[in-house]
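Practice problem 4.
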């Protein structure tokens, strides 16, 4: 009886890892945390495509993290990202590593494209208004009613009754 051994083919994909580093890390030590993430990717055969340097940002909501015997809430964090190419097993290992790292508040690793996928922001188009233009407001009468012209005397009388109360 013969057994065939087949090498498992490694499928590489493009991934992006986004992460928040806890704000208690000193600014000069943030690069050490990021280099630890990079070395984890390289250790398992990943290659870098692009990177966004971490910067301190206010979070949309407070996130709790367990530190020892207590929970600590953070409303800020150093956000950064790394785009890399690696095998599927590397993405899983990196996800587990980021979740176990006590200096990482939150992280996500997802499959993406090699191209630049960041949103492009367009400036809103402004409409030019000439100073001689007059803006008219038109009041529509409720359904079933017709708008009748109102006299100045009726308006004055209505204002007096409103202010008398």
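Answer key:
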């Amino acid at each position: 009886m013969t057994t065939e051994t087949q090498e498992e083919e490694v499928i590489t994909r493009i991934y992006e890892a986004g992460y928040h580093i806890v704000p208690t890390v000193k600014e000069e030590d943030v690069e050490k945390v990021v280099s630890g993430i990079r070395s984890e990717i390289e250790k398992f055969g990943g290659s870098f495509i692009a990177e966004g340097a971490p910067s301190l940002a206010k979070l949309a909501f407070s996130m709790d993290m367990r530190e020892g015997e207590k929970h600590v809430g953070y409303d800020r964090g150093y956000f950064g990202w790394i785009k890399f190419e690696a095998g599927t097993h590397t993405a899983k290992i990196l996800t587990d590593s980021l979740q176990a790292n006590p200096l990482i508040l939150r992280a996500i690793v997802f499959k993406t494209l090699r191209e630049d996928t960041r949103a492009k922001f367009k400036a809103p188009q402004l409409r030019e208004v000439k100073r001689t233009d007059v803006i008219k407001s038109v009041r529509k009468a409720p359904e079933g009613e017709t708008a009748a012209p109102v006299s100045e005397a009726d308006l004055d009388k209505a204002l007096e009754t409103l202010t008398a109360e």
